[in-house]
Amino acid sequence: MKIDIKKIKRSIDKVNNYSVVKKTPLERQEQLSSRFENNIYLKREDLQPIHSFKIRGAMNKFSRLPASKLNNGVIAASAGNHAQGVALSAKKIKCRAVIVMPEITPFIKIKAVKNYGAEVVLHGENFAESMEYALELAEKEKMTFVHPYDDLDVIIGQGTIGKEILENFTKPIHAIFCCVGGGGLVSGVAAYVKAMHPEIKIIGVEAKGSEAMTKSLKSKKRVTLKQVALFAEGAAVKRVGEHNYMICKDYVDEMLVVDNDSICAAIKDVFEDSRIILEPAGALAVAGIKQYVEKNKNKIKHENIIGIASGANLNFDRLRFVSERAEIGEQREAIIAVTIPEKPGAFKSFCEQIGKRNITEFNYRFSDETEAQIFTGISIEHISEVKKIITSLESVGLKAIDLTANEMAKLHLRHLVGGHAPQAKNELMYRFEFPEKPGALMNFLQCLNKGWNISLFHYRNHGADTARVLVGIQVPAKQMKTFKKFLSHLGYPYWDETENPGYRLFLSK
Description:
single chain; Rossmann fold; eight-stranded antiparallel beta sheet
């Protein structure tokens, strides 16, 4: 199959769906540009009526369908954004629309599709299974199937993004970065831009575990992934489109693959620059830009680089994961396991070695008479600091292990440190609010009686002006009066949780 990009370019020039589609702005990302010493711009497709570029391809497809193809309605398979594009387009021309969506589709996308009047059918664990079922329904009910990417009319609709970029940005462009799922966006943009300016690099970005286009281009044929990662569900397909592959093999200069932590970091970067929250697939281009510039930092300076912010349909409950992993993805948080001797003063020695670095998380539970295991998160400026921290800890006899790249530690271990401690005699459990400033923890430790042992310590940085801390302290009964005096002199808000049923069930002896 031969693809004529000049013909595609002429078709893109004729598209006029701006009664529904919005011409989106190009916005310079000031902080990213400064950090990476290049001029980084975002094409704000999150500002479309459905908060995604997918409305372009869907609307163009509908505008070219004859009435006979619409009589029984249309059907589509989608993880969400194409679904909304089809649903809104169908609403505009008063046509029945049925959307088959994977069962894992975020509720925000399901709700949006229904709000446009489309019928939603949840089927399958992934896009491939939804697609198969949608094709069965299309044949059974004589409906017109609207493919999310492997359709020239859809590709042409997405290609209007490339046209707008060239119309609005008259300076030389080094590269345009596109997220890649099935390949509709990158093939449309590549076809138009390469027909006009073949010197501009087109770079596709995929999520790790969903790199169908990367593997296809490497194999010189379309490949089908056995499994597909679903974090960036808007770009999670097992097999790229045939038309898309044919365009990409000739006109995409490079493919990049980024992991979940890098995607989370990119979401945070865009938020800090523009106060918008992209979905994971929508942030792929930014994650790719960062990886590309970092890899070529000695070659690329002050170039104009454009990324397509392709969508912003993020489930609110995903923000917790995004926030937690963003600092690791940005390599601004180190996770370290430290072994300290179980004796008074050891914990203070550990804190002295950390110094004024911000502790993002701290988990410790007494379990052994001789040694204690600490799980801690520490803010860093650069990943090279981790080695220095470990060397500093080991210089005072504290064994330390870097867990920053340990997936089990990042996903599970940080939430599981703890348990019953039958050896922790005379344990009191108190909850404190420390002021979120350097020296607050050391002040607490210095006020402690040297004979009292800390048997549990849990702290997470919640991004507030106070730090919430749970502390277990072994205090002999005869010293309770002294302990009460310590609490009153400390000056921090506190709550006695010794009788808390949660503590009794999971942490006490």
